[in-house]
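User: quick one
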Amino acid sequence: MSSNPSAPDAGDDAVGATDASDPPETGDVEVTPDAATSASAVRDRLDGVTDPELDTSIVELDYVDTIRIDAVDTDADAPTGADADSGNASDDVFVGFTLPTAWCSPAFAWMMAGDAREAVESLPTVARAEIELRDHMHEQEITRGINEGLPFEEAFPDADGGVESVRLELDRKARTARQHDATGALLDAGLTRDQVAGLTRDDLDFADAPADRVRVWVRDGTVAVEADAAPVEHYLEKAEATGVLDDEHSELFRTPEAEPFDGDDVDLVRKRTRLAGVNMGGQGTVCDALNEARHAEDRPPLSTFSG
Amino acid sequence: MYVTDEGDEVFVIDGHIHLWDASEENIVHEGGEQFIQCFYDYHTSFTPEERQWSMEEYRKYGTERMAEDLFGNAAVDMGIFQPTYLSEFYEDGFNTAEDNAELAEQYPERFVVNGTFDPRDGEEGIEYLEELNRAYDLQGVKLYTAEWRGDSKGWRLDSEASFEFLEKCSELGIENIHAHKGPTIRPLNRDAFDVADVDDAATSFPELNFVVEHVGLPRLDDFCWIAAQEPNVYGGLAVAAPMAVHRPRKFGEIMGELLFWLGEDRLLFGSDYALWNPDWLVETFMDAELTDEQRDEYGVELDLDTKRKILGENAAELYDIDIEEKKTQFRSDGVTDEFGLADHYADGTSPAPADD
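Assistant: Done. Structure below.
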C-alpha cells in the first residue's frame, strides 16, 4: 500500500473500484485493480462496528472517511505459512475515521478503532488492516496503539487500567435498550406479560419460522406465536455478548442489573429499558450537533496550545 | 420575569451560571484550551446562528456583559453561580467563587454564590470551605468530580474523604450539593461522571439535596433510576434544555422521562451561561411542548405550572427564596435601575394580585 496514512484526503478520488455498482457511501474509497478485497466487503465489516455509547454502526454515523485497499506483492512481503492459511490473505486495508469531537472519550475511540481493525482483518482476503483516528486529542496514542496491537494501558501509561469495564457497562446499556424493542415486538405479537417474563432462549425458533419472523413457543411449548425476528435477534446478539444467557439463569430477558423478573414487573422493566434508549438517543443528538459544529466552515482552529 | 402572551408571569431563577476566564493568558495546561474549545462547540451546536458569540468574546466576557445578558437581554430574575475551578488548567482558575462574587457583590439580592470543595485537599480544603462559607454564607456547593489534581484524574462523591466534606456541609448548613455529571471527556479509561456515587451519598445524607447537573446526560438512565429511589436527588437541566431548539422531539422525550421518574418538583432550569444565553433559551423552553404521543407514553404534562416550577419555584424552594418578596424588592434594586425594569416588577402586572 502507499503506506502514507497522513496523506491528504482531498485527492483520494476512488480509482479502479472493483465494485463500481456499489457507491462509496463512507467517504473516499480507493481500491487497487488487483486487490482481492472489495470495498463493499470492508464496509460490511465496518458496519458491524458500533459507537459503543450510541450502539449505532460507525458507518451509519458517518465516521468513516477513507477506505483504501492495496494488493500486496505476496512474493516479497508475506511470510510463507501461517499468514496465508485462509488461502489468499494478500491485501492491506487502510481505514481512516473521525469522531464527532476531538474530546470523544479516548476509551470509546479506542474501542471503535480496535473493533474496526479486528472486523476488517476477519475478511479472509485481508492480511492486515491499518486504522487511523483523525482529529482527536489522542489520535497518535490510539492510532499507534491499535496498529501495534498494544493494550490500552500501555498506549496510555497514565490511564488507570484497561477499558474492559467501560465496554461492559456500555454493552449492558445497549443490551437493555435492545431488550425494549424485543419485548415490544413480542407484546405486539400477543404474548402476555407473564409469558414475556418467563421466556427462555429455547422457546425461540428462528429456523422453522418464515423469513424475518421468529416462532415463540409458549404454554409449555404447546402454542407458537410468530413475531418480528429482527429486534429479537438484535437483542440476542448483545445478550450473548454480555453473558446474561447462561445455563444457570435461563430467562431470556432481564432487568438492567441482569436480574430475572416476573410478569408483574414487566411494565416497570419496560419503562427502564425505554429509558436506556432515550438516553442513547439523547447522547446521539449531542454528538450529532457537535459533529456539525466541528465541521462548520468558519469554526476557529482547534487547539494549538503548546505551552 | 418571563411574561406569557396571556400575561402569566414566570419568575426565572437561572440555576447554573458562571463567570469564567479562559483567556489565553490564563491557560497553563493544554487541558484548559481543550476545555474551552469543547465548550465552544457546545455553544455553537445549540445556539441559533444569529445569537452565537465569537471565540474571543467567549473566552472572557466580564461582569458587565454578564449582567446585561442575564437581566437586560433575558428574563432572568436571579442567578445561582456554580464555580468550576480547574486550577490545574488555568492560572487563576476557570470560574471561581471569588470571581463569581465580583458580580454578586454588585447585585447581592440577585445572585446566590455557591462554593466548592475537593476532598483531595484534605484539612486545607475543609478550611477553604469554611472560609468560603464565612465570605458568602453558602447554601450550596458545586462539585466537579472529574477535576484533575496531580496524578489524580478525579474523585468520587461516595468516598470516605468526600463524606467528611459532606458532613462539614451538613454542619455548616450548606444543603445543596450540585454534582457535575456530564459528558465524558477525560480521564482516559474511566467514566469520571458515572452517577452511581450519588446514590450512596444521597442515602447517607438525607438532610442534603443532591442536584445532578446536566441530568447525568449521557447517563440519564442511571440517573433517573437513582433519583426515582432517592427523594433528595434533583436534576439540573443545563445541556438538556438547549436541545429544545434543534431537536424538540428529543427534548420532549427527555423531559417526558424526567417528569415521569422525578416529577415536576425536582427539576431545575439552568442556562449554563455562558455556554448558552438565557434569552433565547428561556423563550425556547417556554415554547416547548410534548407531542400527543409523548403525553400518552409518559403520562405527564409540560404545562405552564410545570414550567413555572422548573424555571424558578423549585430552585426557590431549595435556596429559601421568597419569590413574592423578591418581586417587591426588585421594583427598585440596582439591576432594575440599571436595566430599566421598574415596569417589569410594578405592582399589578399580575392578572390576579397574590393574596397569600
